[in-house]
Amino acid sequence: MSLPNFEGLYQWTLKRARTTRALWVLALVSLFESSILPIPIEVVTIPLFMADRKRVWLVALVATLGSVLGGILGYAIGYHLYEGLGRWLLEFYGYQNEFNSLQEKFREAGWYVVMVGGITPIPYKVVSIASGFARLAFPVFMAASLVSRSLRFLAFALLFYFFGPSVRYLLGKHGALLGWVVLSLLIAGFLVVFWL
């Protein structure tokens, strides 16, 4: 049995990230990640940020627009389809407790919840569906989503614009080790979530 070749996977991903099609994939993934998919958007954005330093601002823009449009879809699911699709999605991904907790916070300061959810690793689909279900004013939701998602992706763009070559060097030199560390952390994270 051979072990995964993280170096080869890294090179393959970087090569694909330089294509024009990669931006379309990013737009689609960011749209559906904000409403229905369990894929973390960083799976797509980080290779794109690393592939070409000159495109980091375009990548941030595409990710922001796709994410905000996906947030509108999530908002609509919470507003119009919660009892059917919304509840099923949250239960399927195991986010029902987070959703219930967010509902209490929306009564106090919904715009703040959207801001925090848009910047932090909290699954944004939970925030968007909860916003619609809580009937948060749509203009407030949109403004908070635009600001928070822009800040999140611009922070990544700045990081990779200034430190991208160092990150690429580390991945090129120690890609296999870093791949195993990331894989171990993912497995540990899933185990923690499963047992809690």
Automatic annotation (TrEMBL):
<feature type="transmembrane region" description="Helical">
    <location>
        <begin position="122"/>
        <end position="141"/>
    </location>
</feature>
<keyword id="KW-0472">Membrane</keyword>
<dbReference type="Pfam" id="PF09335">
    <property type="entry name" value="VTT_dom"/>
</dbReference>
<feature type="transmembrane region" description="Helical">
    <location>
        <begin position="22"/>
        <end position="44"/>
    </location>
</feature>
<feature type="transmembrane region" description="Helical">
    <location>
        <begin position="177"/>
        <end position="195"/>
    </location>
</feature>
<feature type="transmembrane region" description="Helical">
    <location>
        <begin position="56"/>
        <end position="82"/>
    </location>
</feature>
<feature type="domain" description="VTT">
    <location>
        <begin position="40"/>
        <end position="161"/>
    </location>
</feature>
<keyword id="KW-1133">Transmembrane helix</keyword>
<dbReference type="InterPro" id="IPR051311">
    <property type="entry name" value="DedA_domain"/>
</dbReference>
<keyword id="KW-0812">Transmembrane</keyword>
<dbReference type="InterPro" id="IPR032816">
    <property type="entry name" value="VTT_dom"/>
</dbReference>
<dbReference type="GO" id="GO:0005886">
    <property type="term" value="C:plasma membrane"/>
</dbReference>
<protein>
    <recommendedName>
        <fullName>VTT domain-containing protein</fullName>
    </recommendedName>
</protein>
<feature type="transmembrane region" description="Helical">
    <location>
        <begin position="153"/>
        <end position="171"/>
    </location>
</feature>
